[in-house]
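Supplementary Methods. Inverse-folding protocol.

Structures were first reduced to a discrete structure-token string of length 848. This string, shown here, constituted the complete conditioning input.
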């Protein structure tokens, strides 16, 4: 929201010598973010003057209309002669007064103005639009000053157009709808600076009359609990918006349209009450406020025909919907150039309904922005009276005697607040008198126990048990105050956040990272050391991902938790596997030109509970009971922590040193082994064997087991899956459940032998269907304690070996801890290892 300081001064007595920085800091201290402080007087440098158009010559022969103007700028140009200026705008005529920047001036954005020849004529300066001056977004034409403007040609134009203002750009949080008005900001500053407030919302307004200003029926008092209206007849349709109002609207970023519409926008900014102006002569029959019916349509003021749904609130006449209530009016009833009878409407609408309607129609109007944050329900009559007064003052007309006020607003529910709750929650001593004073300062009604006051006039509150309690009724402009915690926040905010000390709790001794945290860091570090890059993906997936992965109906990864309010309707589900978002990250990187990728992610997956019911409703006024905690936890989906890796392209790049090597299924399997080793799982407890699991390629998929339990899968992804996701062929992936891994055992320090090793290579011929890991396990079993390590270093197949046979070459390292092995001992251990492999897998030594 943009607001000028001079306008704020009309409602709050800001000190005359208050620096702008201190004013901004006061708002920040109150929790209202100040995006920028702009002194408009310095946004345009050089000569900016009022000019009067004397002559206009239309230039022809160009692609667009061009005008050669003679503009009287007084003595500002040093000669007193009319200034020659070429201009393309057509919304002005001889005799109009305009804003002219002369050569040497600089417009916002560093746009310097000089003298030049263009379109065959000399142009000395420029006639300015509001956008060029940085006063708004209107660039449809130049600024034409009102005829009654108190300025002569050559006078400084800055005070005339509002460039002598200081403008605050504020970012208001969703719970502070009252701060989207001058009334609300003035009240906040009066609290912060301790200065008097002149509340424009306290202005007297006549009450509703027995006979309505216009026949109106409200059929849904939940969506609209108050509706006020008043008619003004005989309005001068040619009346212009006064310059002071136009200037304030421009500074606020609102385009001036017509006097009745400008008045509704002005009152909205002033009081925070959105309004609408109807052309009463274009209404047909009674007005009805109701929910939309299926199939109804409405063309709103922006010219868009909108299909309405049953949740939308509309204002209708005999022709059907004429306004999308609380969001935007319709074309058929808008105020037009010839409007003489204006019906002002001010209502109070349900914030949730307005917010959903605005998002559904993607129509985030200034009115909807305020309604969804909450508006004071006591303001409709005040706003109507203010609008009627302004319209009759500047456009004549007669205010109708009859006033409509359909009031169904429910009374606010009081909040019970233990008087010591702010002190207990924040850790700052707030005396009871201070708590009461702050709550009354923001407009709350604080009720104290009558019996206690009779006994001790200095006491505040009633006694419930051992706690002193206040009954607080929030003011109508603060719909966000519904719980004791909200009142505590107000006490802290008004007393000053700077009084709350920044104290870190003392960490209990002996409590560092948990073993789960240490394991996660070890896994991440090990993958990073292997060249993988970590990514953080959103945990949301589309409804078709399970089908794209080819998951069967009984696959535990197919059922997914659906979000009630997803960020995107295309991704309404929580992921059950890390591969969905991770593969999307790969696809996005490929689209940006990266071809060799090794990405990994560690995160939670979400598995719905089959027997989960509805979550219990818990308030914020107390700590939930153990039973409530258990009931809530029973509904929360299971969230195991997984790790996943995806590889595509070259894992070893090609270069002058030789050819590269593309990533394959074996690299994905190795990534799984790396994770298990980093997690502290001993190699002798890990098993890798062939499997067929979607979305991996059958025959190129392995399952990883720890102590016989499957904890993950790795391998090459199925070609159909890769084609559907637009990923390269041979893309490999691994996913592993970290929570399924056993606790890392306490590993004793290894014994380092000072004796030399015995290195023996063996090449075993086996059936090609026998996994290399099974052969390796057999060698380990047969070799005994002398075997220190075994490593597969070659896989070979040829016709000489026979069809369906392959050779697996292993490097065996033997070492004894207490002596140097003899050749006979090493060979005997080798032979025992080969014999075990022969017994289990019919392996034969190659070449025998």
């Amino acid at each position: 929201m943009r607001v000028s300081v001079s306008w704020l001064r009309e409602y709050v007595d800001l000190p005359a010598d208050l620096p702008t920085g201190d004013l901004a800091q006061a708002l920040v201290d109150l929790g209202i973010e100040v995006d920028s402080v702009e002194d408009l007087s310095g946004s345009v440098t050089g000569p900016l003057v009022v000019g009067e158009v004397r002559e206009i010559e239309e230039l022809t022969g160009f692609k667009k209309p061009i005008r050669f103007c003679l503009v009287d700028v007084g003595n500002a140009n040093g000669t007193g002669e009319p200034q020659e200026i070429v201009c393309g705008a057509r919304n002005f005529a001889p005799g109009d007064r305009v804003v002219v920047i002369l050569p040497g001036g600089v417009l916002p954005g560093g746009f310097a103005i000089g003298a030049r020849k263009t379109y065959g004529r000399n142009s000395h300066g420029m006639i300015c639009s509001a956008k060029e001056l940085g006063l708004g977004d209107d660039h449809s034409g130049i600024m034409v000053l009102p005829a009654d403007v108190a300025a002569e040609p050559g006078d400084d134009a800055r005070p005339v157009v509002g460039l002598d203002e200081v403008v605050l750009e504020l970012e208001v949080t969703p719970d502070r709808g009252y701060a989207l008005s001058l009334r609300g900001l003035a009240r906040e500053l009066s609290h912060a600076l301790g200065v008097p407030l002149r509340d424009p919302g306290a202005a007297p307004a006549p009450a509703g009359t027995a006979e309505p200003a216009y026949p109106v029926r409200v059929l849904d008092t939940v969506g609209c609990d108050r509706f006020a209206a008043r008619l003004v007849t005989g309005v001068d349709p040619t009346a212009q918006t006064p310059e002071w109002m136009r200037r304030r609207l421009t500074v606020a970023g609102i385009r001036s349209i017509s006097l009745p519409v400008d008045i509704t926008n002005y009152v909205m900014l002033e009081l925070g009450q959105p309004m609408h102006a109807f052309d009463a002569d274009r209404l047909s029959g009674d007005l009805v406020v109701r929910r939309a019916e299926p199939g109804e349509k409405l063309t709103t003021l922006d010219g868009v025909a909108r299909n309405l749904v049953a949740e939308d609130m509309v204002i209708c006449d005999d022709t059907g919907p004429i306004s999308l209530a609380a969001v935007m009016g319709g074309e058929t009833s808008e105020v037009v150039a010839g409007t003489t009878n204006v019906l002002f409407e001010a209502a109070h609408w349900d914030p949730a309904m307005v917010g959903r309607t605005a998002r559904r129609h993607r129509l985030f109007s200034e009115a909807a922005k305020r309604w969804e944050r909450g508006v004071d329900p006591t303001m409709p009559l005040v706003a109507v009276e203010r609008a009627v007064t302004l319209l009759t003052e500047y456009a004549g007309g007669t205010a109708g005697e009859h006033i409509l006020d359909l009031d169904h607003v429910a009374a606010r529910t009081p909040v019970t607040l233990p008087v010591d709750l702010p002190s207990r929650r924040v850790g700052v001593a707030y005396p009871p008198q201070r708590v009461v004073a702050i709550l009354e300062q923001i407009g709350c009604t604080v009720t104290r126990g009558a019996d206690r006051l009779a006994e001790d006039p200095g006491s505040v509150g009633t006694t419930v048990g051992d706690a002193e309690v206040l009954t607080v009724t929030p003011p109508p402009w603060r719909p966000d105050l519904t719980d004791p915690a909200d009142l505590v926040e107000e006490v802290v905010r008004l007393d000053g956040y700077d009084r709350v000390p920044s104290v870190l709790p003392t960490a209990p001794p002996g409590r560092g990272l948990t073993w789960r945290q240490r394991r996660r860091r070890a896994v991440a570090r090990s993958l990073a050391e292997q060249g993988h890059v970590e990514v953080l993906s959103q945990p949301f997936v589309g409804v078709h991902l399970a089908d794209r992965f080819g998951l069967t109906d009984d696959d535990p990864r197919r059922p997914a938790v659906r979000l009630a309010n997803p960020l995107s309707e295309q991704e309404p589900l929580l992921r059950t596997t890390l591969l969905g978002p991770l593969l999307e990250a790969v696809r996005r990187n490929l689209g940006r030109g990266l071809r060799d990728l090794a990405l990994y992610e560690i995160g939670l997956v979400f598995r719905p509970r089959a027997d989960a019911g509805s979550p219990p409703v818990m308030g914020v006024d107390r700590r939930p009971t153990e039973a409530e905690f258990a009931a809530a936890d029973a509904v929360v989906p299971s969230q195991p922590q997984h790790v996943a890796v995806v590889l595509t392209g070259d894992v070893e790049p090609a270069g002058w040193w030789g050819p590269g090597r593309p990533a394959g299924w074996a690299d994905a399997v190795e990534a799984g082994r790396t994770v298990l080793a980093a997690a502290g799982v001993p190699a002798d407890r890990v098993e890798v064997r062939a499997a067929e699991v979607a979305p991996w390629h059958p025959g190129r998929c392995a399952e990883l087991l720890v102590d016989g339990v499957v904890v993950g899968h790795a391998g090459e992804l199925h070609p159909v899956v890769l084609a559907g996701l637009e990923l390269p062929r041979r893309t490999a992936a691994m996913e592993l459940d970290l929570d399924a891994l056993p606790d890392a055992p306490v590993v004793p320090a290894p014994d380092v032998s000072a004796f030399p090793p015995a290195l023996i290579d063996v090449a075993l011929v086996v059936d090609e269907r026998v996994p290399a890991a099974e052969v390796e396990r057999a060698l380990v079993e047969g070799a005994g304690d002398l075997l220190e390590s075994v490593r597969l270093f070659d896989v070979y197949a040829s016709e000489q070996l026979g069809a369906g046979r392959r050779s697996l070459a292993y490097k065996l390292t033997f070492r004894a801890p207490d002596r140097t092995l003899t050749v006979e001992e090493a060979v005997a251990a080798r032979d025992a290892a080969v014999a075990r492999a022969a017994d289990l897998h019919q392996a034969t030594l190659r070449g025998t």
